[in-house]
Amino acid sequence: MRNGSRNVFPAVFYWEEMDAVSRFNKRRWLTMKTTKQKRLFMLVPVWLLLFGLLLWAGTASAGSNPLHVAVKKGNGISVYTASSGSTKAGILYNGYDNELSLDQTNGRYECYLTGNYSVWIDLKKSSQIPEPEWHDGMDNDQWDADYAEWKKNLPCDIFLAEIIEDDSPVYSTPQNKHVLVRHAKGTLVRVCGEFGNDYLVEAYSAGFVAKNAVRKVSDLTTEQRDFPFIYDKLPVQTVYASEKEPVYFTTSANGYNEQSTYYGYTENTEVTVLRDLGDWVQLEYGMFVEKRFLDPEGAHSYPTAWVKCEGVLDRLNVRYSADKDAVSHAKLCSGIPVHVISQSDQWAVIFFTGPNGGYRLTGCVMKEYLSFDGKNIEQSGITQVRLKQDLGGDERGVRFYEDGEYAGLPAGTLLNVFGVVPPNEQPFGHDRNLSVRDGGRPLYRDLEKRCAGACEYGNRHLCQGQLRGPDADGTRSGSQGAVPGEGKDEGGGPPARGNLDNREI
């Protein structure tokens, strides 16, 4: 699992943005750092037995292999470039947490420090101070005392530092020239290890910076090692957001980055400010937001760009990270307007929603398939379809299913299909259409046939015209329900405008 950047859960990205606090604390939840979490964990087998889900529990629990660096001598653990341990890569400091691969090779486990850089670790040597164990006869007060004493005595060599020059690059690997983000002067980072002339640092995301690019601010205790706990009594301000003008946090304070936090807000939200960085602020979880979003009278719009594909059947992959091998969690037709949160040389972090809000889609796209002036957009893959049957909705009225519980879309509703959510993001293995009503809000439409229903995927007479073509960035992925003999035989996406106007599906 590639989890060095702390936010790589591709399977959840086609759902709307998760709560910032819960996503940031995902690592701490998995490692069960608090007493409350310990107690809850102990009750899980009982709950699962009641519901007959022990098999599921065994599968889920097998997915976590936490790393907590805590050694009795020295400031951390040596890590290696390969499982053989022949070449030392660097040192991870005491206090560093992450997750390891589940299977060991040559007695070592692989650990991803960033999205595309991993090292190999001897788990027994890296965790020499085990957590206290619960035993029969122990009460909660005794457990609390034992855990507090254990945590107080844990070594922590992670330290707090600040970036000393504007536009300082953060690289994906040590001694590498691929820049993930550029940090503004004064940005606070946690230094978690050293790799030759580079430090492994974390602000919100992880990466490598030259040692001479940062200045130490202070040591950190075990309790302080995560951003929300570094300082007390920080100022609280309000981020002003709405359904029409959502606000997204970023991973740097200058607009140059190719990593998304996926934290979007559609209502006014209080945030704790860690540091003032001029036109930006750094928040307590290490993320960043422009100051204009803290001003109720400020300009709250993002730059607009338009998807630009060469062919009428092409779609642009919206990926969960800036990598052509990363999972595509949606595909957008040419001509669709998107809003640019940040960008690097080759990638843009974007979100899509309607002029009045509605379904929101966020991710990374290749910049060469965007038009920033709205010109030279030759084709539009959008098509119109008309529902054969009523579809129920969700509470917000942005997702629609056969068995939706709330008021939905009546039969006969005319929809513009502007993209798809591909099978690799779906639990049932079928595309879902992303649509919008004329003059309305974007919506997410489930087209899987699970009972007598509106849209029977794989049935030719109900799915005619689901033509297939290449994705805009050159990769291919199949689409279910295509009409044999029509269109190209690679890729997956909605049909071209004009082929299926007003066709029922």
From TrEMBL:
The segment annotated Disordered runs over 468-505
* Full protein name: Uncharacterized protein
Species this protein is from: uncultured bacterium Contig3a
